[in-house]
Every structure is written in structure tokens, then in C-alpha cells.
Write a structure and sequence with these properties.
about 150 residues, alpha/beta, globular
Length: about 150
Amino acid sequence: MFNSTKKKGERFIAPKVKNFIYYKIYKRRFKMKCIMLVDDSDVIRNIVAHTLGMHSYKNVIMARDGLEALEIIKKESGNICMYILDVNMPKMDGLTLLQEIRKIDKTHPIIMLTTETDKEKINKAKDLGATGWIIKPFDSEKFIKVIDMYLRA
């Protein structure tokens, strides 16, 4: 019934649907489930996108660094309902990106997914508007519980 597709620029799109009735149901179910994932590691981006996809979060927009993400966010901000950011990235780090996102979007959750355990950075992220902080490597079940807590509430 569904065929997964991956478009150029690493944007994962809801699967193509052959039957219009299923398309309407699918579109309604996932309409507000677009997640922005920003991490400089290809492996982490793929693992997180795969984990999200296994739990019905099919629409994931990915970026490699803060500058690339900010360009996408400016175009897609009305469609994004959650942000997952790494802290240490080239060009623009996650904390700076967090600050820029909060200028555009003050309401949607922002989860920091990082190897950083420095309390000072955690507190700074919280002060800048981060909703949560998850340490890599992460347990996929706990990760999905956090995502569900914010998006299915």
C-alpha cells in the first residue's frame, strides 16, 4: 500500500500512496508530525530518522549543520512541530541554532540530542528555550517516549 521514498537533500517524505482514500487518512494522521533533525553525523541522522519512522513519524526533515537547518526552517517553519538538535556542529552550533529557532518559533518543542554532559551547557540550553536534553547514545524506546510525550499530548 505504501512505498517509502527519500528525496534529494535528505528530506524524508511520507510514503507515496496509490489509493486516494488511504492518502487522505495518511495525510490527516501525519499532517502535524513534521520533525526537523539537525546533526552533523550521517550515521546519527539515519539512526534517528529510522527510529522515528519505525514509530509512525515518517516526515523528517534533516540538515547537516545549523546554517543549513536555519535556511530550511525559514521556509518550512509552519510545517515543523518539533526540532531535534545536536550541540556540536560545524558552521553553527546547536545552542546558536536553538536561539535562532526561538526567534522564529516560540512554541514547538526543541530536544537537544548530544554527547554533551556539561551542566553549564545544559542550563544554557534550558535558558535559551530547549525543552529536553537526551544524551547519545540513546535508548530508542526512551527516546520515542520523549517524542510521544510532546507530539501525542
